Amino acid sequence: MSPSSMMRWTSRKRQVTDKPPVVTNTTPLITLAGIELLDLLPHLYGEIWAPRIVLDEYQVKAPPTEPDLAQASWLRVVDDVVIDPALPLLDAGEAAALTLAQASGARLILLDERKARRIAVRIGLPVAGTLTVLLRAKQHGFIAAVHPYIIQMQDQGRRFHPDLITHLLEVAGE
Which of 77, 80, 106, 144 could make an SS bond with 101 (beta carbons 3.0 to 4.6 A apart)? Predict the structure, then answer.
């Protein structure tokens, strides 16, 4: 199945929307799973697309206690994403996610890594990170506050510039 074609049905025979997809890289999946908020993604964005390599990276990097995304009904895994050779050097999951987002005309790509985010912006892709997912979740009433989750993410080893955290908390009204 070509990632650039907007299919009416997925391989699981679920009808999908005609809206362009939201594509994800591995880190937002691992981070949200680590703070037990992975279910925010389908609530906020509907079906999420990920290249097969992203699912494979998740299965290897996520602790065994995290959800098995191979069974997630909201995740569409796209096989055989041919990485755009014009992309600068990135890890395989980032490069595949960027390629899939470009090929599918994604309405959003979820990326946390700075270099991949800069490249996405340079090639014209709308980008959001895990912190944006948390902010949207609060704005939609799915979570009461973002700050406790930021602390959990930092405890997992995620690093954020203090100015970014200050700005996010101001926007969130915390």
Answer: 106
